[in-house]
Design brief:
Order of helices and strands: HEEEE
Radius of gyration: 21 Å
Distance between the termini: 58 Å
Number of helices: 1
Shape: elongated
Helix content: 10-25%
Strand content: 35-45%
Structural class: alpha+beta
Length: 75
């Protein structure tokens, strides 16, 4: 008589939750704030161990391209 092995079936939602959790531990939500001090910002996701972000992007308040630097997003 052969013994049946009971394989646990994992639902899609359980695997999705685990992958979201591991991704969220590896990443940070950061805010790129305009250096023109207009209060305009972009929100980006970056790796936790990666370098700080800075980018030249469009600021619609001053209607030109401006340097944006990283600041952590407050929860």
């Amino acid at each position: 008589m052969a013994a049946k092995s009971k394989a646990k079936s994992v639902s899609f939602h359980e695997t999705e939750e685990k992958s979201v959790l591991t991704v969220s531990l590896r990443t940070l939500i950061v805010r790129l704030i305009s250096t023109a001090q207009t209060g305009f910002f972009y929100t980006k996701v970056r790796r936790r161990l990666g370098p700080k972000l800075s980018a030249v992007k469009y600021d619609p308040v001053v209607k030109s391209r401006v340097l944006f630097v990283e600041s952590r997003k407050k929860k």
